[in-house]
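Quick one: examine this chain and its backbone structure tokens and tell me how the chain folds. Here goes:
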Amino acid sequence: MCWAAVYSPRRTANGHPREELSAPMPEGLKTLTRYTIEEEHRHPGSSGEFSALVNVVATATKIIANQVTRGAIVGSLGAHEADNLPATVHRRMDAIANDIMVGETQWTGHLSALLSEELPQVHPVPDTHRRGKYLLAFDPLDGSSNIDVNLPVGTIFSVLRTPGETGGAATEQDFLQPGERQVCAGFTLYGPATMLVLTTGSGVDGFTLDREIGAFVLTHPRMRIPDDTSGFAINAANERFWERPVRRYVHECLDGTEGPRGRDFNMRWVASLVADTFHILTRGGVYLYPHDTRSPGRVSLLYGANPIAFIVEQAGGAATTGHERVLEVRPDRVHQRVPLIFGSRNEVERIERYHREPEEGPSFDSSLFGTRSLFRPLK
């Protein structure tokens, strides 16, 4: 077997961060650093800042992965009941992940400001650091409530261009851009393997963290979501709060071969946006976190729905709020939340059509004899 050269300097000759390899890498595997540099070379005149930023974010997620897999060793878990967790325990790993993302990215000179789910306000890059032309919005630990039961969690991130002049302090208004203006989006899934899924607007690629060499390597090139599916993901316990079009769609799926869809569907729900997204990217399906009577939206727009929608569309799927394309939503505040439905294109378009005809479909009367009688009909 042929082996690639082993190298250890922290940066390449042109300043790119470089993986530190502790073991030889099999010939043919492409690291994330090589991938981003090759992509940069396809765009003459590029400065290298963007590819360097992507590698810095990837490094931060590798550190988070290490902390997540150590669990109670780093003090993120306790022997408390889930409903009685002290705030310091319940939020500890979220805070750790947030500190890592901020600490690893703000000094690089690529960013003007950061927006995190864990911070109430935009975090401008300090005056002591050089400011760049990009904005980074992220959820440092999506699905963090899953940690106590050892289920998958992840990090979601979105990169935008700073609309003002480079070097100035960014404001909240700078982040209020529709998702179609993203220059990059991705997420890292901390599961049995640590996976990084990335798009820069020309398709979606997946990378797996090879812990022997300490680098992400390309393992899932050109990920595609099939147009059709027989699977959906939703928290069925919330049915009483759903709007009629969502109830119609889910009931038709549950009716299986005897219903109007004429086939059986599978239902799953991980309670981790990144885990369900990765499943849809690899197996197909549709994910619903819809509008309900308690809240108009549950998923953060800027660092949740937008990056996921960008990835999904680049993989051939579709993403909607039920009433409009997610990437066209005009944000009005940095922590805005929206409904989110995404996945296989034909199913998403069906759900959108149901929202345009909300009075169509069967009755959902929940009274005792609302749908069937106590007596058999006369023949």
Remarks:
- The chain has two domains: 32-39+47-72+86-222, 231-356.
- The longest strand covers residues 134-142.
- The two ends are 77 Å apart (CA to CA).
- Residues 49-70 form the longest helix (22 residues).
